[in-house]
Amino acid sequence: MSFGDPNNPYGQQQPQQGQPGYGYPQQAPQGVPAQGNYGYPQQGQQPYGGAPGYPNQAAVQQQYAGWGSRFVARIIDGLIVGILPVILMVTSIDSSTGEIGGLYYVGILLAIGGSLFLSYLLGTTGQTPGRKAVSIQVLKESTGRPLGFGMAFVRGLLDFINALPCYVGYLWPAFDAKKQHFADKIVGSVVVKKF
Known about the structure:
43% of the residues lie in helices and 5% in strands. It is mainly alpha-helical. It has a domain at 59-193. The protein has a two-stranded antiparallel sheet. Helix 2 (67-91) packs antiparallel against helix 3 (102-125) and helix 3 (102-125) crosses helix 5. The chain is elongated, with a radius of gyration of 26 Å.
């Protein structure tokens, strides 16, 4: 150990070849990108802003899902979440007196629970059963990743905006360059094809 060595100002032992050196930055050989350093992904991870199947935002922009597949996905999800609650609600109303039975409220709770479950799936995977059936996925446009439960829930709440001007918002993806409806534009999401 030499205290006067200008290449070793802290008096640490130099690592032997092939062993990691503590206190010295790890450098990759020339021509090989460093793994694990700032600005580089860890080995086996996707780069920042990418997702499996969508390595960067430019790839996401070229694979927008069409209006038809979005419509079919919405119908499938509506049937999955809505059939049982609607049956319970309709059958619990007494047709002669108009009184509401207890199953009506069970139906409402099931509908709310189903909607929350769909928001969870959409936020964590980008897909609901309907979207999975037609191979589309909802992603955050800026990152290419699923929205997260909070933003998926907000996107669902904002869905009423699509219905306000005579349901124009639901038809908007058929004409929009990014195939977004109004709620997509507000939360910054895009619907893309998943291969």
